[in-house]
Amino acid sequence: MVLAKVSATEYVAVTQTCSHEGKKEIVYMNSQFYCTAHGAAFSKTGAGLNSNARSGIKVFQVSIAGNILTVTNN
Ligand code: FES
Prior knowledge:
The protein has strands at residues 2-5, 11-14, 26-29, 32-35, 41-42, 59-65, 68-72. By secondary structure, it is mainly beta. It has one domain (2-72): Rieske Iron-sulfur Protein. FE2/S2 (inorganic) cluster binds at residues 18, 20-21, 23, 25, 35, 37-40, 52.
């Protein structure tokens, strides 16, 4: 999975596996999730932002309690 700090207080976790052709090449850059294989781009909510990303990407639930960050595979 890819866990990104998207703001001072917010984290977002998504699968590292791209929905385009299954490459495990998702990274977080320029405020979006991006696949380095063929350029699929996904929003912080997992929505596809271009044609290679049209199937979206799985987003995990992230919660923070004190110093403990929990990612749930829901
Ligand atoms: S496998 Fe990610 S864009 Fe093709």
